[in-house]
Amino acid sequence: MSYVVYKKIATLMTLFSLVCVLALGTALQIVGAEESVSELRDKISESQKQLKLIEEEIKKYEQQLNEVGAEKATLQSAIRELDLSREKVKANIRATEEKISSTDLEIEELEREIYIKELEITKNMEAVAETFRSVDQTEGQTIIEVILGHDSMAEVWDELEEQTLLQDSLRQSVRILNALKTEYEKAKNKSLVKRGELQELNNELTGEQKSLTNTIYQKDTLLDQTKNEEAEYQRVLAEKKAAKERFEKEISDYEAKLKFILDPSTIPAAGSGVLKWPFEPSYMADCPSYASALGNQYCLTQYFGNTAFAQSGAYNGQGHNGVDFRAQIGTRVNAALGGTVQEVNYIAAQNCQYGKWVLIKHGNGLTTLYGHLSSVSVSKGQSVSTGQLIGYSGNTGYSTGPHLHFTVYASDAVQFKDYTCNSGPTVKVPVSAYTGYLNPLNYL
């Protein structure tokens, strides 16, 4: 066998061995991981099936709650509503736990994929290094040395062809390595996103558990107050309505004394749509005719401004300072826009002003209030992003039925007043001159 033929065979064997390293060198190490990934995907699929079943159960509770909410306010309907709310929140908790489990599995799947990519990258780096060494050995000779080192020009061309083969192999290995690194980075970034989702789901679970505790507390309190008698329930309800009207009149009288001249240039233009609806799309449902006129599916039970309700005396004829959304206890409430939590009330007694509420100051001259929550998921001074969970709707404060009170202020007009609750504690309440209240529908 001639020297040239021998060297060519050696070169081809080197290239073949590099391919074997790539194709077979990692096979024994990653086969187990790939099987585990397949098993994880089966578990994720099963988890998603279970989640669909739970979501169907939640929809049934929502339908029943809508029916009960439309009934006359009686002790029986109030207890039934609290029982259904509790069961719905329990189902929400199971759904969130299922999502957490599925997300955990997805993260584990990604981690295994990352591990496989790391193995492949390591082997490819070894192949690239070996090719570099081979190329370096052949390219260490000048063209004159190559010519002088062979007996004929045919051998010279063979030598140069071998160099080309090695260089092509190097370029291919580098391309494969770059592709693997890109896939690796994508998997790593996706894993980080999933970990962020997992943290948010854990926050949701905590809020839902607090909301569940709230429904139990409310039922126990209601039964204790009414002694399970309808007449006593109607008396308690009347007292709550009267306390609500006193609170609204007191605040309205105070606000009438405040002066504020709104500069339109300091806030977004009406119709700009800078705020998002404070609910998840899943909240959308069929709405009564008085809400469908808005052209959306969010259920409004009270409009902004000088409505018939406001003219009845509750707001001293000055108008409702926000809008009310029908929202069952435990409905997720989101920030309508990113900003900073300016104030939170989550420790006050149930029967007091807006109950548990969150006030968020945005960077565009607007501030939003979310009232009557069952639980709060943020704290004062915290930065929040648009659509971030801030709490769960409820029936706290001077509320005679589950709903979310949503107010939009011109930020410069917001002040705070100390208010003493019927139950004893003194808490802050956000107030504004009438000119500082803005119609939320102009910005949603």
Characterize the structure shown:
The chain is of the alpha+beta class and 444 residues long. It contains 8 helices and 12 strands. Strands 1, 2, 3, 4, 5, 6, 7, 8, 9 and 12 form a 10-stranded antiparallel sheet that branches. A two-stranded antiparallel ribbon has the order 10-11. The radius of gyration is 34 Å and the shape is elongated. 33% of the residues are buried.
The amount of helix comes to: 55-70%
* CATH superfamily label of the largest domain: Glucose Permease (Domain IIA)
Mean pLDDT: 79
Secondary-structure content class: alpha+beta
N-end to C-end Cα span = 84 Å
- Could you state the order of secondary-structure elements as H and E? HHHHHHHEHEEEEEEEEEEE
- How many domains is the backbone divided into? 2
Count of strand segments: 12
Uncertain stretches of 5 or more adjacent residues: 1-28, 286-297
- The rough form would be described as elongated
Count of individual helical segments: 8
Query: What is the CATH architecture term of the largest domain?
Result: Distorted Sandwich
CATH topology grouping of the largest domain: Glucose Permease (Domain IIA)
Residue share in β-strands: 5-15%
The largest sheet, given as strand count, sense and whether it forms a barrel, is: 10 strands, antiparallel
CATH class of the largest domain: Mainly Beta
Rg for CA atoms: 34 Å
